């Protein structure tokens, strides 16, 4: 699981080989491609991408990677292996033809289970090759021949997998909701559903719920083809720091035995969490800044890094000021590794509507005290109104009982609820008078 190193400048960087080794198949290729495309040109990284593309038999990624290597590092360039492309294309066509012939044979014998299985294998084949459109087509065909709950769940999980790599999060969310309504106790299925749900919530910027979903996944089932244990640890930590209050951070994150097992294996992330919890915000923010460069190279996390870092900083400022009525902005600026002027600009947007005043001349942040006397008066008036209403209600009820009146209900009454004969006579006498 260890995939982090510290370079000569003190910045935390990923050991790319260790990072990529946590994944397999198309997921490994997609993550590596995103990493190489968004990092500084490096011939070793391009060669690793070329090798991985050849292992996954992805001709498009292979040719793109060779062209990128030749353009960015011409002195270390290489020529395209035409023979490999020819052999790979032939192999893929033969495999598809063989499976399609199998399907035709199964259709003659009306063997629905084998038809479903062959279509699913074709979907898996195209998915591994990076052809997500054809993968979707064959997964859809396999659905028509499903006959059990397990078959339905497998179809939903396959569609979730394809839509995750398409980044169609609304579709992922729809399939997750359908899968959650299926009565299935297999932990393998439940884990993958929870992982997809957490990814969807994070991608829709519901960071609080995403952190809670990730934390509910048992640690013994963290290994998955889409998210590695290290990636899940980082996703959970950032979402929690961006949205949890201090008490929730302790209860749900630090004291979570399920999460702690992996947290202890990553002291950098553990110390970062403890720094925020212990109000050492400058240390916590510095640790996150050292991680930021590498986290922007994560396939699913990259679009959210700036938002998450902004929310973490804002939440930290709120927690810093929460215990005080008055705060020295000079000391606060030191705690957050910034200047007083920059801090003031941040606070202007942050404290709007929070009942806090900024004294720009004295550089003081002051909480606006609520007038307790006014609030007490409002509470007393509200209580008096309630008592007055209840008193009027009791007076009306007492008058009705004294008059012997019976109010007919629009709802049919049971035998026990019907008025007695004496009550009816009393009512009649009152009406005649």
Key structural traits:
433 residues; mainly alpha; three-stranded antiparallel β-sheet; two-stranded antiparallel sheet; 5 strands; flat; disordered C terminus
Could you walk me through the main structural features you see in this protein, from its secondary elements to its overall organization?
The chain is mainly alpha-helical and 433 residues long. It has 21 helices and 5 strands. A 3-stranded antiparallel beta sheet has the order 3-5-4. The protein has a two-stranded antiparallel sheet with strand order 1-2. Helix 5 (82-109) packs antiparallel against helix 6 and helix 9 runs antiparallel to helix 10. The longest helix has 32 residues, at 372-403.
Derived from helix and strand composition plus strand pairing, the structural class reads mainly alpha
**Rounded Rg:** 33 Å
The tally of helices reads 21
The order of strands across the largest sheet is 3-5-4
Globular, elongated, flat, extended or rod-shaped: what is the shape? flat
User: Biggest β-sheet: count, sense, barrel?
Assistant: 3 strands, antiparallel
The helicity comes to 55-70%
